[in-house]
Amino acid sequence: MIALTLKRIELTTVATRGVLLLNGALIAVTMEDVVRPTKTPGETAIRAGRYDVVVSHSPRFDVPLPLLLDVPEFSGVRIHTGNTPRDTEGCILVADSFNFDSLTNVISSRPAFVRLFDAIKHCTGRGTCSITITNH
User: Fold this and answer.
1) pTM here?
2) Which of 16, 62, 95, 122 lies at a C-alpha separation of 20 to 30 Å from 82?
3) Cβ atoms within 10 Å of 133's Cβ, excluding its own
């Protein structure tokens, strides 16, 4: 089993930045929509909590991607590549680093996703995988 932990470290009015840990070690940084008390479709990050993760075919991207299960008020929440909150509708974007010139950009998303996806595929093939999301 692997344990993913997403620690939201910067919650702003334009985006949410975080760090993603794999069994306690940093594997990527993250970008999400804004954390809000109530959902605004296409503009709100999912609630903090623990979610099981599986790999399944994404109809939107037409490739297999990690899918978070049983997310309250959301469906189809995935972990995928992207660079700004415009690339997510409640999903979690992963990257190698933040763009410190902008609160709303991450850099080098694809290499981070490949590392993470390899670990998730390995995990889901052998057992369970989960992600715990916290607001810090």
Assistant:
1) 0.93
2) 122
3) 24
